[in-house]
Specification:
The structure is a single chain. This protein is an alpha+beta fold. The protein has one domain. The protein has a 4-stranded mixed sheet with strand order 2-1-3-4, with helices on one face. A hairpin with a 2-residue loop joins β3 and β4. The termini are close together. This is Membrane protein. Pfam families: DCC1-like. GO terms for molecular function: protein-disulfide reductase activity. It comes from Mesoterricola sediminis.
């Protein structure tokens, strides 16, 4: 895996998660982020990098640090204790379907981003 790249595994039926992917696609001009659905959707996003696998708030911060400024500055949030960060992450994860909705339909991918999606687990 590209040392600056990451594979982001997300809940494809979650409207918030799909919005997160669109946000990342629009800002990752270098094209180093890749995307795949989670094997078993849960309340976390999983990010795989050359440095390891990240979950919850660590995953979000790991992805944001790969974007241009000002988004990479969110890495400063690592100074906060992980239990605090994860508590906020968990609250959003628990309520995301109620707040943002759920959509099991297959999304239409923009042509310029289709090559950055993999059909399933590990690849």
């Amino acid at each position: 895996m590209d040392p600056g790249g990451a594979l982001i595994r997300f809940d494809g039926g979650c409207v918030l998660c799909r919005g997160w992917v669109r946000f990342l696609l629009a800002r990752d001009r270098a094209g180093r982020l890749r995307f795949a659905p989670l094997e078993a959707p849960g309340d976390t996003v999983v990010v795989e990098t050359a440095a390891g696998t990240f979950r919850r708030s660590d995953a979000v911060l790991e992805v944001l640090k790969r974007l241009p400024a000002p988004w990479r500055w969110a890495g400063l949030l690592r100074a906060l204790p992980r239990p605090w960060r994860d508590a906020v992450y968990d609250a959003v994860a628990r309520n995301r379907h109620r707040w943002f909705g759920r959509d099991e339909s297959c999304p239409v991918l923009p042509p310029e981003g289709r090559d950055r999606f993999t059909g399933g687990p590990r690849g």
